[in-house]
């Protein structure tokens, strides 16, 4: 439900349901799917479901009526999993790597091509993460930062040697 307006002076607020057929409704009593037949909007008091009058005793808000109690261990577990999924999506869409969000970088059209492009982007992302893991593990085990091969080359084509920076000399007295 989406809020349609702000709560009025008495604490009642109107909410809009999505149109029937655009969402899946589940009966909480038996866990089975039911055909949604809901009104376009509904008015809910601020203390809906509270055992006592407003400002007396604990309030039961709508967020506590979901499948997993709000901020319960189960809710945190599933919310954390959702954060992991969103992080993976962000990585796939990042312009620095796979850039799956940029349609102009893909020349093909259609469901099959987009499915293949998304699959290859996921494979590429996973390979990059595995490579980074092994590099970080090697650095941690050796106790020093591993350096990559120098880009600049000698006339013969061999990479330039790395020079260790010497500490600055004391000024003459």
Characteristics:
5 strands, 2 helices, Transposase DDE domain-containing protein, 173 residues, 8% strand, alpha+beta, 3-stranded antiparallel sheet, 31% helix, two-stranded antiparallel ribbon
In short:
This protein is α+β, with helices and mostly antiparallel strands. The chain has helices at 73-93, 111-142, and strands spanning 2-3, 13-16, 25-26, 33-34, 41-44.
Question: Any chance you could write out the topology, listing elements then pairs?
Answer:
Elements: E1 2-3, E2 13-16, E3 25-26, E4 33-34, E5 41-44, H1 73-93, H2 111-142
Antiparallel strand pairs: 1-2, 2-5, 3-4
Description:
The protein has 173 residues and is α+β, with helices and mostly antiparallel strands. It has two domains: 65 residues, no CATH class; 78 residues, no CATH class. Helix content is 31%, strand content 8%. The chain has two helices and five strands; from the N terminus they run E-E-E-E-E-H-H. The strands form two sheets. A three-stranded antiparallel beta sheet has the order 1-2-5, with no helix packed on it. Strands 3-4 form a two-stranded antiparallel ribbon. The longest helix is centred in the C-terminal third of the chain and has 32 residues. About 6% of the residues have low confidence.
Q: Can you tell me the overall shape?
A: elongated
Q: What is the makeup of the main sheet?
A: 3 strands, antiparallel
Query: What structural category characterises the helix and strand content?
Result: alpha+beta
Radius of gyration: 29 Å
Query: What separation lies between the terminal Cα atoms?
Result: 79 Å
Order of strands across the biggest sheet? 1-2-5
Query: What are the secondary-structure elements, in order, as H or E?
Result: EEEEEHH
SS summary, helix count: 2
């Amino acid at each position: 439900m989406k809020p349609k307006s702000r709560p009025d002076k008495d604490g009642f607020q109107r909410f809009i349901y999505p149109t029937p057929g655009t969402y899946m409704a589940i009966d909480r009593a038996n866990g089975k799917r039911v055909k949604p037949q809901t009104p376009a909007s509904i008015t809910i008091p601020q203390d809906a479901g509270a055992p006592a009058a407003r400002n007396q005793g604990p309030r039961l808000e709508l967020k506590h009526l979901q499948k997993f109690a709000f901020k319960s261990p189960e809710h945190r577990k599933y919310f954390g999993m959702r954060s992991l999924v969103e992080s993976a999506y962000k990585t796939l869409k990042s312009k620095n790597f796979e850039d799956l969000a940029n349609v102009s970088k893909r020349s093909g059209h259609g469901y099959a091509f987009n499915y293949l492009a998304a699959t290859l982007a996921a494979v590429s992302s996973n390979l990059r993460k595995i490579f980074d893991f092994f590099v970080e593990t090697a650095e941690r085990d050796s106790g020093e930062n591993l350096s990559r091969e120098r880009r600049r080359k000698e006339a013969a084509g061999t990479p330039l040697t790395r020079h260790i920076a010497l500490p600055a000399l004391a000024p003459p007295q």
